[in-house]
Amino acid sequence: MDKHYDVIVIGGSFAGLSAAMQLARARRRVLVLDSRRPRNRFASHAHGFLGQDGKAPSEIIDEATAQLSAYPTAHVATGEARTAERVDDCFIVTQSSGSTASADRLILATGIRDELPSLPGLDERWGISALHCPYCHGYEVADKRLGVLATHSLSIHQAMLVPDWGPTTWFTQGIVEPSLEETALLEARNVRIERAPVVEVLGDVPNMTGLRLADGRAIEIDALFVGPRTQMASPLAKQLGCEFDEGPMGPVIRVDNWKQTTVPGVFAAGDAASAWSNATFASAAGVAAGVAAHRSLIFGL
Protein backbone atom coordinates (compact mmCIF):
# COMPACT_ATOMS: atom_id res chain seq x y z
CA MET A 1 0.00 0.00 0.00
CA ASP A 2 1.65 3.30 1.08
CA LYS A 3 2.13 4.27 -2.58
CA HIS A 4 1.05 7.00 -4.93
CA TYR A 5 -1.33 6.26 -7.80
CA ASP A 6 -2.87 8.27 -10.57
CA VAL A 7 -6.33 7.22 -9.40
CA ILE A 8 -7.73 5.33 -6.43
CA VAL A 9 -11.10 3.68 -6.98
CA ILE A 10 -12.95 2.93 -3.76
CA GLY A 11 -15.38 0.08 -4.35
CA GLY A 12 -14.71 -3.02 -6.43
CA SER A 13 -18.11 -4.04 -7.76
CA PHE A 14 -19.62 -3.31 -11.19
CA ALA A 15 -19.04 0.46 -11.19
CA GLY A 16 -15.61 0.47 -9.58
CA LEU A 17 -14.12 -2.30 -11.70
CA SER A 18 -15.52 -0.77 -14.89
CA ALA A 19 -13.90 2.55 -13.99
CA ALA A 20 -10.58 0.94 -13.15
CA MET A 21 -10.52 -1.01 -16.41
CA GLN A 22 -10.58 2.21 -18.46
CA LEU A 23 -7.66 3.59 -16.46
CA ALA A 24 -5.65 0.38 -16.64
CA ARG A 25 -6.10 0.27 -20.40
CA ALA A 26 -4.87 3.87 -20.50
CA ARG A 27 -1.76 2.54 -18.69
CA ARG A 28 -2.41 4.65 -15.62
CA ARG A 29 -1.53 3.48 -12.12
CA VAL A 30 -4.85 2.61 -10.51
CA LEU A 31 -5.67 1.08 -7.15
CA VAL A 32 -9.03 -0.49 -6.36
CA LEU A 33 -9.92 -0.78 -2.67
CA ASP A 34 -12.85 -3.05 -1.92
CA SER A 35 -14.38 -4.28 1.35
CA ARG A 36 -16.08 -7.27 -0.38
CA ARG A 37 -19.56 -6.30 0.82
CA PRO A 38 -21.43 -5.43 -2.40
CA ARG A 39 -25.08 -4.46 -2.18
CA ASN A 40 -26.13 -7.48 -4.26
CA ARG A 41 -24.39 -10.05 -2.05
CA PHE A 42 -27.80 -11.32 -0.91
CA ALA A 43 -28.83 -12.39 -4.43
CA SER A 44 -27.71 -15.77 -5.74
CA HIS A 45 -27.86 -14.72 -9.39
CA ALA A 46 -27.65 -11.53 -11.43
CA HIS A 47 -30.00 -11.01 -14.34
CA GLY A 48 -30.42 -8.56 -17.19
CA PHE A 49 -26.68 -7.80 -17.43
CA LEU A 50 -25.72 -8.41 -21.06
CA GLY A 51 -23.41 -11.41 -21.41
CA GLN A 52 -23.61 -12.25 -17.69
CA ASP A 53 -27.25 -13.25 -17.27
CA GLY A 54 -27.77 -15.91 -14.62
CA LYS A 55 -24.29 -15.75 -13.10
CA ALA A 56 -23.74 -15.23 -9.39
CA PRO A 57 -22.75 -11.60 -8.68
CA SER A 58 -19.63 -12.82 -6.88
CA GLU A 59 -18.63 -14.84 -9.94
CA ILE A 60 -18.98 -11.80 -12.21
CA ILE A 61 -16.93 -9.67 -9.82
CA ASP A 62 -14.22 -12.32 -9.39
CA GLU A 63 -13.89 -12.74 -13.15
CA ALA A 64 -13.75 -8.99 -13.73
CA THR A 65 -11.17 -8.58 -10.95
CA ALA A 66 -8.97 -11.25 -12.52
CA GLN A 67 -9.22 -9.53 -15.91
CA LEU A 68 -8.35 -6.16 -14.40
CA SER A 69 -5.43 -7.59 -12.44
CA ALA A 70 -3.85 -8.83 -15.67
CA TYR A 71 -2.97 -5.20 -16.48
CA PRO A 72 0.42 -4.33 -14.96
CA THR A 73 -0.58 -0.86 -13.75
CA ALA A 74 -3.75 -2.07 -11.98
CA HIS A 75 -3.76 -3.16 -8.34
CA VAL A 76 -6.67 -4.55 -6.32
CA ALA A 77 -6.62 -4.69 -2.53
CA THR A 78 -9.20 -6.06 -0.12
CA GLY A 79 -9.94 -3.73 2.75
CA GLU A 80 -12.17 -0.94 3.94
CA ALA A 81 -11.31 2.67 3.17
CA ARG A 82 -12.08 4.49 6.42
CA THR A 83 -11.01 8.04 5.63
CA ALA A 84 -10.23 10.16 2.60
CA GLU A 85 -8.93 13.70 2.60
CA ARG A 86 -7.27 16.20 0.32
CA VAL A 87 -3.74 17.12 1.37
CA ASP A 88 -2.09 19.75 -0.81
CA ASP A 89 -2.49 18.54 -4.39
CA CYS A 90 -3.42 14.90 -3.78
CA PHE A 91 -5.85 12.69 -1.89
CA ILE A 92 -4.85 10.48 1.04
CA VAL A 93 -6.91 7.34 1.69
CA THR A 94 -6.51 5.42 4.95
CA GLN A 95 -7.71 1.85 5.35
CA SER A 96 -9.09 0.28 8.51
CA SER A 97 -5.75 -1.56 8.78
CA GLY A 98 -4.00 1.79 9.10
CA SER A 99 -2.20 1.58 5.76
CA THR A 100 -2.44 4.58 3.45
CA ALA A 101 -2.22 5.39 -0.25
CA SER A 102 -2.37 8.63 -2.20
CA ALA A 103 -3.65 9.58 -5.63
CA ASP A 104 -4.20 12.54 -7.91
CA ARG A 105 -7.85 11.57 -8.42
CA LEU A 106 -10.50 9.58 -6.55
CA ILE A 107 -13.45 7.62 -7.88
CA LEU A 108 -16.11 6.74 -5.31
CA ALA A 109 -17.97 3.57 -6.21
CA THR A 110 -18.92 2.96 -2.60
CA GLY A 111 -22.55 1.92 -3.12
CA ILE A 112 -25.53 2.20 -0.84
CA ARG A 113 -27.06 0.28 2.04
CA ASP A 114 -30.66 -0.91 1.94
CA GLU A 115 -32.81 -0.20 4.99
CA LEU A 116 -35.64 -2.71 5.00
CA PRO A 117 -38.95 -2.14 6.78
CA SER A 118 -39.10 -3.57 10.27
CA LEU A 119 -41.15 -6.64 9.41
CA PRO A 120 -40.59 -10.09 11.00
CA GLY A 121 -39.35 -12.58 8.42
CA LEU A 122 -38.29 -10.03 5.80
CA ASP A 123 -34.52 -9.71 6.36
CA GLU A 124 -33.76 -13.42 6.04
CA ARG A 125 -35.59 -13.60 2.70
CA TRP A 126 -33.97 -10.53 1.15
CA GLY A 127 -32.68 -11.25 -2.33
CA ILE A 128 -34.44 -14.62 -2.51
CA SER A 129 -38.22 -14.30 -2.11
CA ALA A 130 -38.24 -10.69 -0.90
CA LEU A 131 -37.00 -8.72 -3.88
CA HIS A 132 -36.10 -5.20 -4.92
CA CYS A 133 -36.22 -4.93 -8.71
CA PRO A 134 -38.76 -6.63 -11.00
CA TYR A 135 -36.43 -6.16 -13.97
CA CYS A 136 -33.69 -8.05 -12.10
CA HIS A 137 -35.82 -10.78 -10.53
CA GLY A 138 -39.34 -10.66 -11.95
CA TYR A 139 -38.79 -13.30 -14.64
CA GLU A 140 -37.72 -15.87 -12.02
CA VAL A 141 -41.00 -15.47 -10.08
CA ALA A 142 -43.26 -15.07 -13.12
CA ASP A 143 -46.85 -16.30 -12.78
CA LYS A 144 -46.51 -16.73 -9.03
CA ARG A 145 -48.59 -14.86 -6.44
CA LEU A 146 -46.78 -11.52 -6.18
CA GLY A 147 -46.98 -8.73 -3.65
CA VAL A 148 -45.74 -5.15 -3.53
CA LEU A 149 -45.11 -3.66 -0.08
CA ALA A 150 -45.48 0.11 0.13
CA THR A 151 -42.57 1.91 1.77
CA HIS A 152 -43.10 5.33 0.18
CA SER A 153 -45.41 7.10 -2.25
CA LEU A 154 -43.61 5.81 -5.36
CA SER A 155 -44.54 2.21 -4.57
CA ILE A 156 -47.72 2.74 -6.57
CA HIS A 157 -45.58 2.82 -9.71
CA GLN A 158 -44.01 -0.50 -8.77
CA ALA A 159 -47.48 -1.92 -8.14
CA MET A 160 -48.44 -0.94 -11.68
CA LEU A 161 -45.31 -2.55 -13.17
CA VAL A 162 -45.32 -5.90 -11.40
CA PRO A 163 -48.52 -7.36 -12.97
CA ASP A 164 -46.52 -7.96 -16.16
CA TRP A 165 -44.85 -10.77 -14.20
CA GLY A 166 -47.83 -12.19 -12.33
CA PRO A 167 -51.03 -11.58 -10.33
CA THR A 168 -50.28 -8.74 -7.92
CA THR A 169 -51.50 -7.51 -4.55
CA TRP A 170 -50.43 -4.06 -3.40
CA PHE A 171 -50.13 -3.63 0.37
CA THR A 172 -50.46 0.08 1.14
CA GLN A 173 -49.26 -0.21 4.77
CA GLY A 174 -51.18 2.96 5.58
CA ILE A 175 -48.41 4.89 3.82
CA VAL A 176 -50.12 5.59 0.51
CA GLU A 177 -53.76 6.14 -0.37
CA PRO A 178 -54.32 6.06 -4.14
CA SER A 179 -56.37 8.74 -5.80
CA LEU A 180 -59.49 7.82 -7.75
CA GLU A 181 -57.49 8.00 -10.97
CA GLU A 182 -54.69 5.84 -9.56
CA THR A 183 -57.23 3.34 -8.24
CA ALA A 184 -58.74 3.07 -11.70
CA LEU A 185 -55.31 2.48 -13.23
CA LEU A 186 -54.50 -0.21 -10.66
CA GLU A 187 -57.83 -1.91 -11.25
CA ALA A 188 -57.19 -1.83 -14.99
CA ARG A 189 -53.96 -3.69 -14.26
CA ASN A 190 -55.90 -6.19 -12.09
CA VAL A 191 -53.96 -5.14 -8.99
CA ARG A 192 -55.65 -6.06 -5.73
CA ILE A 193 -55.37 -3.26 -3.16
CA GLU A 194 -54.95 -4.38 0.46
CA ARG A 195 -55.05 -1.67 3.13
CA ALA A 196 -54.69 -3.81 6.26
CA PRO A 197 -51.01 -3.57 7.36
CA VAL A 198 -48.68 -6.53 6.89
CA VAL A 199 -47.22 -7.64 10.23
CA GLU A 200 -45.34 -10.86 9.39
CA VAL A 201 -43.90 -12.85 6.49
CA LEU A 202 -44.97 -16.50 6.47
CA GLY A 203 -43.33 -19.71 5.18
CA ASP A 204 -40.18 -21.74 5.64
CA VAL A 205 -37.15 -19.49 5.13
CA PRO A 206 -35.98 -18.59 2.53
CA ASN A 207 -39.27 -19.31 0.80
CA MET A 208 -42.48 -17.35 1.29
CA THR A 209 -46.03 -18.65 1.37
CA GLY A 210 -47.91 -15.59 2.53
CA LEU A 211 -48.22 -12.46 4.60
CA ARG A 212 -49.99 -12.08 7.95
CA LEU A 213 -52.10 -8.95 8.26
CA ALA A 214 -52.84 -6.90 11.36
CA ASP A 215 -56.47 -8.05 11.32
CA GLY A 216 -55.40 -11.71 11.55
CA ARG A 217 -55.93 -12.66 7.92
CA ALA A 218 -53.21 -14.38 5.87
CA ILE A 219 -52.79 -13.54 2.19
CA GLU A 220 -51.06 -16.13 0.01
CA ILE A 221 -47.97 -14.57 -1.58
CA ASP A 222 -44.95 -16.33 -3.12
CA ALA A 223 -42.68 -13.32 -3.66
CA LEU A 224 -42.74 -9.79 -2.34
CA PHE A 225 -41.29 -6.69 -4.02
CA VAL A 226 -40.04 -4.04 -1.62
CA GLY A 227 -38.51 -0.67 -2.45
CA PRO A 228 -36.24 -0.09 0.57
CA ARG A 229 -35.01 3.24 1.78
CA THR A 230 -31.28 3.64 1.19
CA GLN A 231 -28.28 5.28 2.83
CA MET A 232 -24.68 5.75 1.80
CA ALA A 233 -22.67 2.60 2.51
CA SER A 234 -19.58 4.72 3.18
CA PRO A 235 -18.97 8.09 4.87
CA LEU A 236 -16.22 9.08 2.43
CA ALA A 237 -18.29 11.33 0.15
CA LYS A 238 -19.44 13.34 3.16
CA GLN A 239 -15.91 13.46 4.58
CA LEU A 240 -14.64 14.89 1.32
CA GLY A 241 -17.36 17.55 1.23
CA CYS A 242 -19.34 16.21 -1.73
CA GLU A 243 -22.85 17.58 -2.12
CA PHE A 244 -25.85 15.28 -2.29
CA ASP A 245 -29.22 15.21 -4.00
CA GLU A 246 -32.30 13.65 -2.46
CA GLY A 247 -33.27 10.69 -4.62
CA PRO A 248 -36.62 8.90 -4.46
CA MET A 249 -35.26 6.30 -2.01
CA GLY A 250 -32.51 8.23 -0.28
CA PRO A 251 -29.52 10.53 -0.83
CA VAL A 252 -27.28 10.23 -3.90
CA ILE A 253 -23.95 11.91 -4.55
CA ARG A 254 -24.41 14.86 -6.91
CA VAL A 255 -22.50 14.36 -10.17
CA ASP A 256 -22.48 15.90 -13.62
CA ASN A 257 -22.79 13.98 -16.89
CA TRP A 258 -19.16 12.86 -16.57
CA LYS A 259 -19.56 11.71 -12.97
CA GLN A 260 -17.58 14.61 -11.53
CA THR A 261 -18.77 15.42 -8.01
CA THR A 262 -18.91 18.93 -6.57
CA VAL A 263 -15.38 18.36 -5.20
CA PRO A 264 -12.69 18.84 -7.86
CA GLY A 265 -10.78 15.64 -8.51
CA VAL A 266 -13.43 13.38 -6.98
CA PHE A 267 -15.68 11.36 -9.27
CA ALA A 268 -18.52 9.02 -8.28
CA ALA A 269 -20.37 6.20 -10.03
CA GLY A 270 -22.80 3.38 -9.35
CA ASP A 271 -25.68 3.22 -6.88
CA ALA A 272 -24.13 5.88 -4.63
CA ALA A 273 -24.44 8.45 -7.40
CA SER A 274 -27.63 7.43 -9.19
CA ALA A 275 -31.29 7.02 -8.40
CA TRP A 276 -31.36 4.12 -10.87
CA SER A 277 -30.00 0.90 -9.36
CA ASN A 278 -28.99 -1.71 -11.89
CA ALA A 279 -25.80 -3.60 -12.72
CA THR A 280 -25.75 -2.29 -16.28
CA PHE A 281 -26.35 1.31 -15.20
CA ALA A 282 -23.57 0.96 -12.60
CA SER A 283 -21.09 -0.49 -15.06
CA ALA A 284 -21.83 2.20 -17.67
CA ALA A 285 -21.44 4.94 -15.06
CA GLY A 286 -18.13 3.42 -14.01
CA VAL A 287 -16.87 3.56 -17.59
CA ALA A 288 -17.82 7.25 -17.76
CA ALA A 289 -16.08 8.00 -14.44
CA GLY A 290 -12.92 6.16 -15.46
CA VAL A 291 -12.71 7.98 -18.80
CA ALA A 292 -13.45 11.34 -17.17
CA ALA A 293 -10.82 10.82 -14.47
CA HIS A 294 -8.25 9.92 -17.10
CA ARG A 295 -9.08 12.96 -19.24
CA SER A 296 -8.85 15.20 -16.18
CA LEU A 297 -5.28 14.04 -15.59
CA ILE A 298 -4.42 15.31 -19.06
CA PHE A 299 -6.58 18.37 -19.54
CA GLY A 300 -7.10 19.39 -15.91
CA LEU A 301 -10.32 19.84 -13.99
UniProtKB/TrEMBL annotation:
Q: Which PANTHER family match?
A: THIOREDOXIN REDUCTASE 1-RELATED-RELATED (PTHR48105)
Q: Which GO terms describe its molecular function?
A: oxidoreductase activity
**Provenance organism:** Pandoraea eparura
What's the protein called, per UniProt?
Thioredoxin reductase
What Gene3D superfamilies does the record point to?
FAD/NAD(P)-binding domain (3.50.50.60)
Q: Membrane-spanning regions, if any?
A: none
Keywords (A to Z) from UniProt? Flavoprotein, Oxidoreductase
Q: Which domain of life is it from?
A: Bacteria
Q: What SUPFAM superfamilies is this protein classified in?
A: FAD/NAD(P)-binding domain
Q: Identify the residues that the record assigns to the FAD/NAD(P)-binding domain, covering every copy.
A: 5-129, 184-286
